[in-house]
C-alpha cells in the first residue's frame, strides 16, 4: 500500500498474472454474444503484423462538449439509506482467487467545523454469504475505520467519513457465483442481497475472461457514459489505473473548477471536497457491488491535509491485498520506490511462465505517451524499471494519467523491439479536466525538458535526455508521430482485455460516442515465447536481435 509518510516516492506497480486456459468453452460463449466472432475476427490485426505505421485519428470537434460533474442534487449521488444501513458497497480482489474483499460505509459523513468523528467500533462489520441466494450460511467479520481530512486553516472546512468497513471472504471456490449481504445484524442494519463471481482458478485452468480497463474517471456525465458502455461489455473485473474521483478539483466549501491550478490561487493548501468520494461510491455501487475492482493510485489521490498526511481517502476507502499478501502477492502489490526494484524482481523471477504466460503491469503515468500533457513525466521510473519488465517478458502495460487513448508498437528503451511490451494509455474515463489533444511532436508543443518530471509521481527528479539515434536524434521530442506510437485518438472510452490462450489476447478500445459494441481500436496482442524467452537466465544468454522496424 502507499506509505502515507513517504508518498512522494511511492510508485505502485501492479503485476497481473493470467493463467493458462484449458477450457475455452466459457470464453467462446461470451465472445460470440459480443459479436467479436466469425468474419469480424478475421479482420483483426495482430502485433505480429507490426510494427505499425503511426496513426493519429483527428479530433472530432462535433462531440467536444465540456465534461460536467454530476451535481450533488443528482439522485445517483445522494444517500438513499437510513441510519446505519450499508451504502457504497463494493467488491475488490484479494491476493488469490479464493478470496475477495467486501467494503461498505455506514453512517453519515460530516463536513464543517468542530466535528465529532463516529466511533468505528459502534457498528460491526459482518458479511453473510453463500452460493445460494436463499442460503447465506457462511459468515465473515472484518475491520472498520473512520478517516478525517483536516485543514488547520481559517475558513476551510474539515471532513470526517462515515464508518468504512472491509471484510475479507476466504475459502471461496473459483469461477463461482456468491450471494452476500453486508452490515450489522445486531442493529439490525443489513444490506440487500448482492452477488459477485470469483475469478477462475489461478493454478492452471483459465483466465479472467473480460477485464475492463479505464483510468482518470471522475464523475461527469461523460463518466456515466463510459460506465454504461463498460457495463454493456460485461466485464468480470475492472482495473482502474488511477485518478478516481477528482475530489481535489473542489474547495472544501463545495465550489469546483475544471482547472484547480488556474482557479484557486489563494487557497493555503490544495483543498478537496471529500463528499465527492461518497458521491462516487454511491454512483458506482450498482457496478462495484457485482464486479470486482482493482485500483492503482493516481496523482489526484494525493490529497494533502494537516500534518502532511496524503492519500488518506484512497487508502481508507479501498481494500487492498496488502497485509494478507504483502510483497508476496502474485496478483497485486505496490511498494515504496526504494524497495520497488528488488520486490518486483523477486516477484517476476518467481513467476512460472509455463503456468502463467501472461504478465500485465499497470501504473498511473505512462512512459510512451506522445501527448503534450505529461510528456515523459515518469522518465525516472522508466529508466529504473524498464529493463526489468523487458527481461521478464511483461506483455502489456496499462496506464492512465493522459486524458486520451494511445497504443504503442512493441517497444523497449524507445526502440521498436518485437519482445518489448505494448504500452496502452486509457486515461480517457471522462473526468472534468480537459481531454488531452495536443501532441508533443506538433510544432511549438515540445515541453522544455526540465519542466517535465512530475512532482508527485516522479519525486521531482529529472531523468530525461535527448534521443541519441533515429529521426529525433539530439532532440527531446520527435517532429512527427513517433515510430513507437501505433495509434492515438483523443476520445473518451474504456478498453476490454480478453486473454484467449497462452499466445493471444484480444484488446478492444470502445469510444463513448460509438454504439456499444463498436471498436475504436482492436488488436490481438500475440506473445512469441520462442522468439522472446521469458526465463531470465536463458534470456540473458540468448537475447534475440531486435527486428528491423518494418512498415506496412
Ligand atoms: C461529454 O458529454 C457531453 C454530454 O453530456 C457530450 O456533449 C460530449 O460530446 C461528451 N464529450 C466527449 C469527449 O465524449
Ligand atoms: C480542522 O481540524 C484542524 C486540525 O485538527 C483544526 O486545527 C481546525 O481548527 C479545524 N477546523 C475547523 C473549521 O473545525
Ligand atoms: C467558496 O470559496 C470561494 C473562495 O473563497 C468563494 O469564491 C466561493 O464563493 C465559495 N462558495 C461558496 C458556495 O461559499
Ligand atoms: C510537513 O512538511 C513540512 C515541509 O516539508 C515540514 O517543514 C513540516 O515539519 C512537516 N510537518 C509534519 C507534522 O511532519
Ligand atoms: C537506453 O538508451 C539510452 C540512450 O539511447 C542508452 O544510453 C541506455 O544505455 C539504454 N538503456 C538500456 C537499458 O539499454
Ligand atoms: C534537447 O532538445 C531540446 C529540443 O528538443 C533542445 O532545446 C535542447 O537544447 C537539447 N538539449 C541538449 C542537451 O542537447
Ligand atoms: C489462440 O487464440 C487465437 C485467437 O483466438 C487463435 O487464432 C490461435 O489459434 C490460438 N492458439 C492456440 C495455440 O490455441
Ligand atoms: Fe493523473
How would you describe the overall organization of this protein?
It is a single chain. This protein has 552 residues and is an alpha+beta fold. The chain has one domain (24-85, 209-538): 4-Layer Sandwich (Purple Acid Phosphatase, chain A, domain 2), CATH 3.60.21. It is built from 10 helices and 29 strands. It has helices at residues 25-33, 38-43, 221-232, 260-263, 275-288, 312-317, 337-349, 379-391, 455-458, 536-541; strands spanning 10-11, 14-18, 55-57, 87-93, 100-106, 110-112, 126-130, 138-141, 143-145, 148-149, 158-160, 163-169, 177-184, 189-190, 194-197, 211-214, 237-240, 293-295, 335-336, 358-362, 396-399, 405-408, 411-412, 415-416, 422-426, 485-489, 493-499, 504-511, 521-526. Strands 2-20-21-25-22-26-3 form a 7-stranded mixed β-sheet, with no helix packed on it. The chain has a 6-stranded mixed β-sheet with strand order 18-17-16-27-28-29, covered by helices on one side. Strands 7, 8, 13, 14 and 15 form a 5-stranded antiparallel β-sheet that branches. Strand 10 (148-149) and strand 11 form a beta hairpin. Helix 7 packs parallel to helix 8. Residues 1-12, 15-41, 325-338 and 537-552 have low confidence and may be disordered. The protein binds 2-acetamido-2-deoxy-beta-D-glucopyranose (7 copies) and fe (ii) ion. Residues 216, 242-243, 298-300, 364, 401 line the site of fe (ii) ion (FE2). One 2-acetamido-2-deoxy-beta-D-glucopyranose binds next to loops. It comes from Citrus sinensis. This is Purple acid phosphatase.
